[in-house]
Write a structure and sequence with these properties.
single chain; 293 residues; alpha+beta; Protein Transport Mog1p, Chain A; 2 domains; 7-stranded antiparallel β-sheet; 18% helix; elongated
Length: 293
């Protein structure tokens, strides 16, 4: 029987995990997963400035350990299957044991992108070569080669330029929102559900105006990939905008699209603001790369 996996992508990291693992904790560079309400795996990552040390990364793990007493973490020789899967990294294994639990993991350093990763699995002493664990190791990637960042959590997935950095996010049952920013551009991605309830006493125009604090007169009907949509297009770059730029004032141009995925009973939306005129295909590219999983 084929192994059922789900893909995860968040703020520069990508990997696949067993389908029955559930994400229970999200930080900008820290994810924790449970299986049946029991800890299964956690992973942290980030850029390294200066010289990298496996031991230094382990010390940070110990300092962040909430359990008392703190279990002693020791070096651990990685199984051959782990070493082979992690061949692209400088890798060092570690393990620990407490009265109630145990952990096995590794610290990784990528010489190409100078990122460090630390991950650990919980209570896998007799399952070190479990197919699900090996697939995580084989699919783990801390950078891409296309100058983009992939985002894939819960229902939504997106591919954005690497220049857009995560600023805030929330994943509520009826509303997912991700906000990103670069030196000249701000992008927000939205997912609302269930659409049937949200539009029961309204329509897409009124809903969009209410949620994004616009007037209905600013919105016009359009279509996104065959789905009904509304849009607020940015005004042309007129003389007043050029004068403000010349005076050092940078007013934001805004572009909004919201579309109804009737088959999925979801509403997706994108809002972008820029200090410079938009490229003609900029919104179309964002819409094409933002969808449901």
């Amino acid at each position: 029987m084929a192994l059922t996996l789900k893909k995860i992508a968040w703020n520069g990291i990508q990997f696949s995990i067993p389908f029955d693992w559930e994400l229970v904790s999200i930080d900008s560079r820290h994810l924790t997963f449970h299986k049946s309400d029991t800890p299964a795996m956690e992973i942290k990552w980030g850029p390294i400035k200066g010289r990298f040390s496996h031991q230094g990364l382990l010390k940070k793990l110990v300092q962040g350990h909430k359990a008392r007493p703190i279990p002693k973490i020791t070096k651990w020789q990685l199984p051959p299957a782990w070493t082979q899967a992690l061949a692209a990294y400088s890798a060092q294994g570690f393990c620990w044991q407490s009265d109630a639990s145990n952990g096995h993991g590794a610290t990784l350093y990528c010489p190409q992108c100078k990122n460090a990763v630390i991950f650990q699995f919980f209570d896998i002493r007799n399952r070190l070569t479990n197919p699900g664990l090996l697939q995580f190791l084989k699919t783990l990637a801390d950078h891409r080669d296309d100058d983009c960042t992939a985002w894939r959590l819960f229902e939504v997935q997106a591919l954005l330029p690497k220049s857009l950095q995560l600023k805030h996010y929330h994943f509520k049952p009826g509303n997912h929102e991700l906000a990103f920013k670069s030196s000249i551009l701000a992008v927000k991605l939205y997912r609302w559900a269930p659409a049937s309830a949200l539009l029961a006493l309204s329509n897409l125009t009124a809903f969009t105006a209410d949620m994004l604090q616009l007037s209905e007169a600013q919105l016009s009907f359009t279509s996104i990939q065959g789905n009904p949509a509304v849009e607020m297009q940015p005004p042309g770059v007129t003389g007043w905008h050029r004068h403000l730029l010349r005076w050092g004032i940078k007013p934001a141009l805004k572009w909004v699209r919201v579309w109804h995925l009737e088959r999925n009973n979801r509403i997706l939306g994108i809002s972008i603001e820029s200090k410079k005129p938009f490229k003609p295909n900029q919104m179309a590219q964002l819409c094409a790369n933002f969808q449901l999983k």
